[in-house]
Amino acid sequence: MKTISHSARVGASAETVWGVITDIDNCAEIFTEVVATETLSEGPYDVGFQWSETRMVFGKPLTSTMEVIECELEGRTRIRFDTEGITNYITISLGPIDEDTTSVTYEHYSEVGDVSGVKRLALQAARMLSGTLMSKAMNKMVATDLDEIATESRRRSAAAAS
C-alpha cells in the first residue's frame, strides 16, 4: 500500500507538540476516533513502549497493540501495530520552524503481515477490492489525527502562555 502523508505548520513549540503525540493516557480526549487506551509498558515513551488503543473504524471498535519502534526526542517517532493480518506503521516527524511554530508530518503505511498461503492471498485480494475505500478512510484518519494534534498543541501552548 502506498504511504499516506499529511503535513501542517502548527502554532506551538516542538516540545509542546511532542508532549501531545506522546500523551498516551489522554489519547481518547485528544483524538475523536480513539475511545480507550491502556498502557502496557512501564517507563517513558521510548523504543519498546507499548499500549493498547481502541479506535472506531467504520463505526466499529478496533483494538490494536501499538509499539514504538523508533524514537528521537522531540523529533520523530515511528509506531508499529497489527490489525487483522495487516502490519501498519505511523511515522510522525517534527521540524521546529521557530520557537512557537513546528512543522509536523504524519505518515501511515501498511503491508500484509506475517501470514502465508490462502490467508495471504485473501488479504491481498481484499486490499485490491477495497483499496480505494481503505485508502480514502486512511487518508481521512491521517488528516484528522494531524488536525487534532495541531488543535491540542495550540490549546496547550495558549494555556501555558496565560
UniProtKB/TrEMBL annotation:
<protein>
    <recommendedName>
        <fullName>Carbon monoxide dehydrogenase subunit G</fullName>
    </recommendedName>
</protein>
<dbReference type="InterPro" id="IPR023393">
    <property type="entry name" value="START-like_dom_sf"/>
</dbReference>
<dbReference type="InterPro" id="IPR019587">
    <property type="entry name" value="Polyketide_cyclase/dehydratase"/>
</dbReference>
<dbReference type="Pfam" id="PF10604">
    <property type="entry name" value="Polyketide_cyc2"/>
</dbReference>
